[in-house]
Design a protein that fits this description.
outer membrane lipoprotein receptor (LolB), chain A; 14-stranded antiparallel beta sheet; 229 residues
Length: 229
Amino acid sequence: MLSVRLLSLASISVLMPLTVQADIGAAEVVMPAPWSVSDGATINFDVLRGGSPFGSHRLNFSSDGSGGVTVTTDVDLKVKIGPITAYRYELDSVETWSDGRLVALNSRTNSNGKRKRVNVESTGSGLDVDATGFEGMVDATIIPSSHWNLLQMYGDQMLSTETGQVLDIDVEQLGREIVVVGGNALEATRYRLSSELAVDLWYDDQSRWVKMLFEARGQSIEYILNELY
């Protein structure tokens, strides 16, 4: 297993390739260029809980062609017992990026009746966070926990899109695997991101997020991508 850590995020663009130093002596890991956002792209996951339908996780992208990107996320998960909804989780967020950096984030979460919010704005000294879990300034280069951006795997912190907290993370690269998307098999790299919980994420050779797997409350939660984007 390879432990991956980015040395500096200060001048990174989401469209630029990276060379990163891993915690394996003097060895270097050359990371592919992050996914180049295309206007109108959609990431659409079906979510399974213990192998049964649990809901959906959808991201929509718009790009102005000159470095501006807007990412809209809609998560809708629920457990039903007969006609009764026993559990529900909803998250809606909008990220605004400029030249590879987050400049604004607004999200609202309903976790089984417990509501949370995040409002982030860029200032001259960083990102100003006003959220349920944190209020204050954070580094301008931090990446939110929406997972679509492969650069998240090469940092040591992420910004929670649910609470606004800055979460310490540890990332391991677990190797290459085959992921099936829409009946087509493709090679992908598997990462394990550990923070408040351990999450396995797969990215293909175009740095597209293609799968996710984790455990919550003793149940396996699996993200199945409907089609490539």
